[in-house]
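Entry 12.
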Amino acid sequence: MPRLTKPRALPPGGTFGIVAPAGPIDEQRLRAGVAMLEAAGFRAIHRDDVCSRRGYLAGDDPRRADELMEMVENPEVDVVLCARGGYGSQRIVPRLDPGRVRRAAKPFVGYSDATTLHLWMRRVVGLVSFHGPMLERGGDLQPEELEGLLAMLSGRSEGGRSWQGDPGRDGVGEGRLVGGNLSLVAGSLGTPWEIETRGAILLVEEVHEEPYRVDRLLGQLAAAGKLAGLAGVGVGALVDCVPTARPIDPELHGAANGPSARSALAEWLDPLGIPQVFGLPFGHQSPNQAWPLGVRARLDGKRGELHILESGVRRP
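Predicted 3D structure (tokens):
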């Protein structure tokens, strides 16, 4: 795994390069998102074909890969921002050039399906990237979300960022932040971008996965040795992760006292004896706060707090 380096900070009035590496983005939402960035004092550019559609993808694989690399190497672009998630990022990874991405040293922002690209950035490129809000909500980001993202990208946070969640298991752990969407994290196993977790704080979120599927994903990570040696686990939004569609046990269908996604997580995590925090403000929810993958943080299970200890960017 290459030595980790930090991307260059977003300068005042800098430029966002918008990309669609996975699912298609609605044109109206794209325009609203661009307007939001411009209102905040920044510039946003994108290719004319960014709103392309090819089934459930934002155009074919060459288009999406070329677009991302074009924004990476465009000297006018300071930050590469995903328009939305969906599906498809893993299809373009073989077409990306890690050396060129590392040399460009630009912050990359996204979440959900972009988890694959974040893991690739860490394991193959060796570059800090940012799990954070995209443009799929148009210009509907809360002020605290936009401000949090801009503070992270500009380096204004300088390690002073703290979040409040729900206490899980007592203890304090320090380590580098890794993770993202739980399904994509588990899906990285056996790939060149397989997640490295030893000594790290694992942050995960999920959407539309029933509790038994969350159980299965944690079991897969455990079997691969990815839960051993963790410093702590922070859980973000678990959106619609309830037993609804074709449950394993029909008697639990819609049952208020049925297993929850949180209980499925705790069943795997409690025996580890490491600090846990639930309900952190990131994932498929609002607010969806930005956080830098690869930087050091402290997790306090008793207080339900996550403290980011260093900046994710390097300033001039």
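Annotation: The mean pLDDT is 94. The radius of gyration is 19 Å.
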